[in-house]
């Protein structure tokens, strides 16, 4: 989720560019760049991942799907740069600069942790287009586009599902990092649950606080937090914690209770297959849709600018139905959806 935006760019030019990308963990896939198979693409897109990177079964993987779609459908050459645990602001800046110096344009930064680095590098390179996911600064450079989501709306629906399915009217929320972004998930989830039953009890645990962002990449912390909430009596637990959430899902499944996934439909993730019978639903944040939409706007010569928000009404967030475990409360979820999309229900963005 980590709340959390992305980078795209163009053109590998020379061995020095390749070396600099390799040094910061990038991997080029420009040998498969064209959708029609007619030579290499001149449209080259770079992406810098958040902590956890590809394989987190969540936020970064959703961004990656949008990038892959651009490769397949738009003929883009893509290059991916992985983040490192405990890295400095300078590491983030260097990752972006390496993509720029190698000719990538646009560049997508995955996650709000890139905001300062994107602002600095974008100002130094006004002819390169950048996008950042899950962050929007009031004074960001004109060549930076923010891709944001109404996470609170999707989380409200998750709260409706949780409160309806909880036998003990006692549920839990685990946030990866206590940030303004993740608080949106908490606020929506709690509001949705209390719309069903004002007396429902909601346990809230955050794994870390800034500048410690390991709460998004430590399944052990997620498992421990979930066990603590289970011990207190929670029987449905929603985790907005990136790959740390996989640990929470493991603990909840082991206790025979319900887990709620985030960002991707986690019941469909291969690494979580053995827990799928205990994943009630997932609050799907369609980062792939935002990434592809942004890249296509560049390709079409009509680039998205400023802040582009993806809400429930336009499919930016949704609730997964894999497994059919929320089929029995579909009418209630549909009613809540209609109330939100019509504007009748205003979902809070802060706890």
From TrEMBL:
Localization annotation: Cell membrane
PROSITE patterns: PROKAR_LIPOPROTEIN (PS51257)
Signal sequence residues: 1-22
Native organism: Kitasatospora saccharophila
Pfam families: Bmp
Keywords noted in UniProt: Cell membrane, Lipoprotein, Membrane, Signal
ABC transporter substrate-binding protein PnrA-like domain mapped to chain residues: 45-348
Primary location recorded for the protein, binned into one broad class: membrane
Name under which the protein is recorded: BMP family ABC transporter substrate-binding protein
InterPro entries: BMP_lipoprotein, Peripla_BP_I, PnrA-like
Topology relative to the membrane: Lipid-anchor
CDD domains noted in UniProt: PBP1_PrnA-like (cd06354)
Family of the protein in this entry: Belongs to the BMP lipoprotein family.
Family annotation (Gene3D superfamilies): 3.40.50.2300
């Amino acid at each position: 989720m980590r709340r959390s935006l992305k980078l795209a760019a163009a053109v590998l030019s020379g061995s020095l560019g390749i070396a600099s990308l390799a040094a910061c963990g990038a991997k080029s896939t420009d040998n498969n760049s064209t959708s029609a198979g007619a030579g290499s693409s001149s449209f080259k897109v770079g992406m810098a991942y958040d902590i956890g990177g590809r394989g987190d079964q969540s936020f970064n993987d959703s961004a990656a799907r949008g990038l892959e779609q651009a490769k397949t459908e738009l003929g883009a050459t893509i290059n991916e740069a992985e983040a490192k645990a405990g890295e400095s602001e300078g590491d983030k800046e260097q990752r972006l600069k390496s993509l720029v110096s190698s000719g990538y344009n646009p560049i997508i930064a995955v996650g709000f942790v890139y905001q300062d680095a994107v602002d600095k590098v974008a100002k130094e390179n006004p002819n390169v287009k950048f996008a950042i996911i899950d962050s929007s600064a009031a004074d960001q450079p004109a060549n930076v586009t923010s891709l944001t989501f109404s996470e609170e709306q999707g989380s409200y629906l998750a709260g409706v599902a949780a409160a309806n399915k909880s036998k003990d009217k006692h549920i839990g929320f685990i946030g990866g990092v206590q940030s303004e972004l993740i608080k949106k998930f908490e606020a929506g989830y709690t509001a949705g649950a209390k719309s069903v039953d004002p007396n429902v009890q909601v346990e809230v645990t955050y794994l870390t606080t800034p500048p410690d962002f390991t709460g998004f990449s430590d399944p052990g912390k997620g498992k421990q937090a979930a066990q603590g909430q289970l011990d207190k009596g929670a029987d449905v637990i929603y985790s907005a914690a990136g790959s740390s959430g996989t640990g929470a899902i493991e603990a909840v499944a082991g206790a025979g209770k319900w887990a709620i996934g985030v960002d991707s439909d986690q019941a469909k993730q291969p690494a979580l297959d053995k827990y799928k019978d205990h994943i009630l639903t997932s609050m799907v944040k369609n980062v792939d849709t935002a990434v592809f939409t942004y890249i296509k706007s560049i390709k079409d010569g009509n680039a998205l600018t400023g802040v582009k928000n993806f809400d429930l009404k336009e499919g930016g967030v949704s609730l997964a139905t894999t497994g059919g475990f929320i089929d029995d409360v579909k009418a209630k979820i549909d009613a809540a959806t209609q109330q939100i999309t019509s504007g009748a229900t205003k979902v809070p963005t802060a706890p």
